[in-house]
Amino acid sequence: MVKRTSFEGDACPIARSLEAIGDWWSLLIIREALFGVRRFGEYQSKLGMAKNILSARLRSMVDHGILETAPASDGSAYSEYVLTAKGRGTFPILVALRQWSEEFDDTPEQIATILVDRAKGRPVKKLEMRAEDGRLLSPADTMLKPRPAPRRRSA
Fold this sequence. Notes:
Blueprint: H1 13-21, H2 24-34, H3 40-47, H4 51-63, E1 67-71, E2 79-83, H5 85-88, H6 91-104
Antiparallel strand pairs: 1-2
């Protein structure tokens, strides 16, 4: 088995995020959690994952603070996996991936669903990157610069 590179502690925030959610199973687990799936068996039946892979991914996502375990809502002896605020924070990432696929997929007509606003039933507008003053930004309008050093407190 190939040893996986760890991006923990990497200076790049994209690489750091991949450490926690960088494989397809993790993103699909989060997708299902956003739709209300909470139990191991539900994840397994929805995703068709082997038990050992699902178990490892769920454990990793709990370790990374994306999911937490909670007593089963029906009072049974089972545990459930619940998204944390950090896990719910992945929603725009999944929407961006979905919208990218809808725009660039070779066969978009095969995509079975559309994302709509629950209250109005209307399609969700494409995500946009905007400057603080509201201007629409493209990659050419952005750049990276070093983060300012933290200020030292004087004694």
